[in-house]
Structure formats: structure tokens, C-alpha cells
Amino acid sequence: xxxxxxxxxxxxxxxxxxxxxxxxxxxxxxxxxxxxxxxxxxxxxxxxxxxxxxxxx
Length: 57
Ligand code: FES
Prior knowledge:
Largest sheet: 2 strands, antiparallel
Distance between the termini: 16 Å
Shape: globular
Radius of gyration: 10 Å
Bound molecules: FE2/S2 (inorganic) cluster
Number of helices: 3
CATH superfamily: BFD-like [2Fe-2S]-binding domain
Helix content: 40-55%
Number of domains: 1
CATH class: Mainly Alpha
CATH architecture: Orthogonal Bundle
Strand content: 5-15%
CATH topology: Arc Repressor Mutant, subunit A
């Protein structure tokens, strides 16, 4: 997956930012949301964020 691909369009959060959040200890959707803001507006990206977490942890 492209690191600079935008995952959350509402907050303009790219895959790299989410990967970094996971690398610094985020293990749940809620932790990613509070650290990056991704997934906190329309929710359309939540499934994808969960898939990214599941693939990494
Ligand atoms: S696309 Fe992520 S909250 Fe809307």
C-alpha cells in the first residue's frame, strides 16, 4: 500500500500517519482516532482503519 495514500479524507490523514500511530503504540480504532483524528468525522474510513490495524497487530 502507498504510504502517502489518504485513508481519511475528512481529516486528510494518510496511511503513513496511521502506520506511525500504530508503531507508537495505538492498538485500537479509538486510540488511532484520538491520536490522529482519523475516523472521527463521517466514519467512512473506519472499516479501512480497522483493516490496517488488523494487518499490523
Ligand atoms: S473519511 Fe475518515 S472520518 Fe470521514
